[in-house]
Structures are given as structure tokens and as C-alpha cells.
TrEMBL record:
The lineage of its organism: Bacteria, Pseudomonadati, Pseudomonadota, Alphaproteobacteria, Acetobacterales. It comes from Asaia krungthepensis NRIC 0535. InterPro entries: Ap4A_hydrolase, Calcineurin-like_PHP, Metallo-depent_PP-like. This is Phosphatase. Gene3D superfamilies: 3.60.21.10. PANTHER family: METALLOPHOSPHOESTERASE, ZINC-DEPENDENT ENDOPOLYPHOSPHATASE.
Length: 219
């Protein structure tokens, strides 16, 4: 198995990441910001069709899915660019296929003592199935997509996040997540919690001037 962090439209990096015989679990945010969100989606869909991979629902993926189904929401330049890339005859059928894949994407996956989620963990994820990707926002889905927020905004305009959820990861369990770009040394950022669990943050800024991280697991 190969766990791949946030791609954000960096198709070239994603092509390198998936050049393996390992099964791909991509941790969400396939689209927006980078140069080729359409190509990234197409490659992910090919992996799904070939039974070689899947992706976890990210907040950018969900926003794209809701835009594709005609929901009224705040449009931002990265989303507008992704929608533009998905338009036109060259991308015939891609919008529909992308929408269907996003609608079916799980917000989290639990495999034995491994948890795969985009934003942040909650203990209820160990006993509850993920809700519909494009349905109503629930507290658990919000945690999965955005992590744990304080309700305050940072100077950069993004919500302030806290990491208390890491202390609730059960002993021996590992959460692989993206969303939070915490690393300062170009490697996945690892933090151990008080209960003996571990969180590994894989977002290294692909599509935003950083690079793409992936981790191979022998499971």
C-alpha cells in the first residue's frame, strides 16, 4: 500500500507517486491550486477503474462535487480554475465521472489499527461508517474534512486549528492525514498522543510551491 498526501493539481508529482505496483490510498484534496487538476482527476479515476487505488474525501474535493451538482456556494479562484479545466469538449465525460467518484469517496477508512482521513480524527470514526460525501455537513464529517478548529481565523485567512484530537487516538493506532501543512523539514510530520496513538501529517504543499509526500506501508 502507498499512502499519498494532498496533490492539489500537481499532476507530474502524482504520476511519480502512483508509478508503483502498490495499492494507492490518496488522502484527499486532489484538486485546486496546482496546474492540472483535470489531469489529476483523470489519473485518479483510471486508478479506481483499474482497481489500483482510491481517494479519501478532502474539503476541496467535496467543494468541487457540490459545485458540479449545481449547489450555490462561495466560488474562489482555485475552484473556478478547476471548473474551467473540466469544461470543453476535450474533457468530455470527465465532469460526470469526477462527480460520481467524489460522491462515492469515503470520508475516512479504518483498517485494523490504521485510520486514513483527510483532516482529523475522532474516536467515533472507529465505530461509525462515513456519511454521504455530498450530503449535509455533520460534526463528524467536519472533523474528517477540516480537523479540529477553534472558530477563530488566522492572519492568513484560514481557520485556526488545534491538535487535541491526537491525544484521543487509541494506543497502537496510527492516523494518516493531510490538510494541515505542519512539516518544516520537507518530510511528513509525526506527532504522538497521550493515549499512545500517532498522527502522521502528509501535506507538504504539493500544488502550492511544495512537494508531494507518499509513504509505503507493508500491510
Amino acid at each position: 500500500m502507498r499512502v499519498v498526501g494532498d496533490v492539489h493539481g500537481d499532476l507530474t508529482a502524482f504520476e511519480h507517486a502512483v508509478a508503483t505496483d502498490r495499492f494507492i490510498i490518496q488522502l484527499g484534496d486532489l484538486v485546486d491550486h496546482g496546474p492540472d487538476s483535470a489531469g489529476t482527476l483523470r489519473l485518479m479515476l483510471d486508478l479506481i477503474d483499474d482497481g489500483r487505488g482510491l481517494f479519501i474525501l478532502g474539503n476541496h474535493d467535496r467543494k468541487l462535487g457540490r459545485a458540479l451538482e449545481g449547489r450555490r456556494l462561495r466560488r474562489d479562484p482555485p475552484l473556478e480554475e478547476t471548473l474551467h479545466q473540466l469544461s470543453g469538449p476535450v474533457q468530455a465525460g470527465l465532469r460526470e465521472r469526477a462527480y460520481e467518484a467524489i460522491a462515492e469517496a469515503p470520508a475516512w477508512i479504518v483498517q485494523d489499527d490504521l485510520i486514513f482521513v483527510h483532516g482529523g480524527f475522532h474516536t467515533d470514526m472507529l465505530i461509525e461508517a462515513p456519511p454521504p460525501a455530498l450530503g449535509s455537513m455533520t460534526p463528524l464529517l467536519s472533523r474528517a474534512l477540516f480537523g479540529e478548529t477553534t472558530g477563530r481565523m488566522q492572519p492568513d485567512g484560514y481557520p485556526e486549528r488545534r491538535l487535541r484530537w491526537i491525544d484521543h487516538i487509541p494506543e497502537g493506532h496510527v492516523v494518516y492525514c493531510g490538510h494541515d501543512r505542519r512539516s518544516t523539514d520537507g518530510r511528513p510530520w509525526i506527532r504522538d498522543g497521550r493515549n499512545g496513538g500517532r498522527a502522521i501529517f502528509t501535506d507538504l504543499g504539493a500544488g502550492k510551491g511544495g512537494h508531494l509526500a507518499w509513504i509505503d506501508l507493508d500491510v
